[in-house]
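Sequence in, structure out. Go.
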Amino acid sequence: MNTGIFVPPQHWNKKLARVWDHLPPEYGNPVEISKELQRQLRLVEDIVLYAQEKKMMHPVQFLRETFSPNFNLRDLDKHARDKPSGKPKVNLDFFYQMDEYIKYKQGVVAPSTMHVFKNLKLILECFQTFRKKPIIFEEIDLDFYEEFIHYLRFDHIHRKRKEVIKGFKTNSVGKNIKQLIVFLRNRKAKKIISDLDLTGFKIPEEDADAIYLSPEEIKKLQQLDLSHHPLLLRYRDLFVFGCYTGLRFSDYSVIRTEDVRNGMLYKKQGKTKHWVVVPLRDEADHIFHNSFNRNIPHVTNPEFNRYIKEIGKLAALNQPIKHSYMKGNKNIVEIRPKYEWITSHTCRRSFCTNEFLAGTPVELIMKISGHKSLKDFYRYIKIAPEQAGQRIREIWQQRGEMMRPDIVT
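Output:
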């Protein structure tokens, strides 16, 4: 705010917030300047106090619109009638603000992330109906967090399911809590809502059980005779292509002709917006140029996941795999043949795990996978205990600390 007073920076004492006594005469008398600044400071304090007493929503904005060095406090009531809130009233309806946040994110984040935002809004609307009480920003506290967590774990009914399924897995609960925190912090940063204490808002998570395919299994899929199942060819080739590039499905399923040059794949990742450069293996290069004629076929994630399981079944990937996860306070254990666990995400996980086992430096793998921390990367890759033991044996042999099995007598 302009005080109408000019003091050269070198003549202003920042520590004491006052004019130096040796101010040159042409800039005024330092004692009189200090008195005037004190008067204006009291004026500011009186205006803010008035706004607070009137319970104005934006007292600082009211101050900015009201203050001038010669403002008369007797005009405050008249000024307040002209500008009763100091700022156009903000719609603080929770779901209105969620819609504004989603509109702001449109075109900024990947479509898959937009789906997460919209789904969170639907879940919160269901939660509001379930609790029979509107969600209000001022009431979002630790009690609200614990109530919402309990709802996510035990009470939320999944939509569009033939059978009634209640509650989310731990990591799905954590994903929704994380996005809620991001939304609330965004509204705070934009000064739309007052400060909220989110200290106790923890993000539940557990190590996800997930599979990967070994190089031998990927090769088995690649060599699978699908002459009697021509519909499955493009899904098989796209899956193998994904295993050899390490990209997310949302990235490797939309590669364009110009993205591949001189045996290298140049791609801006949709989720992180970072560029990656992936050297194409001979197998991936052959698929791109010969199988796809440099044009990746358009397939949706659901249909891809459905057909790749069928392909895995034809390839006899029947090894029983046991997965366990927490749902509410229950530990759920499922045993299925390996092909039933295959999804589009298996491609990226297979790439990362196989490259790690082959000795590729982790920092180079992360350049392609997009992981930002070693902790996240090591949680992501999946290595069986036998493979870990075998890898350690190979490292010891390379260092000469262990004899090769074939020469042990």
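Check: Strands lie at 12-13, 18-19, 260-261, 264-268, 275-279, 320-327, 330-337. The mean pLDDT is 85.
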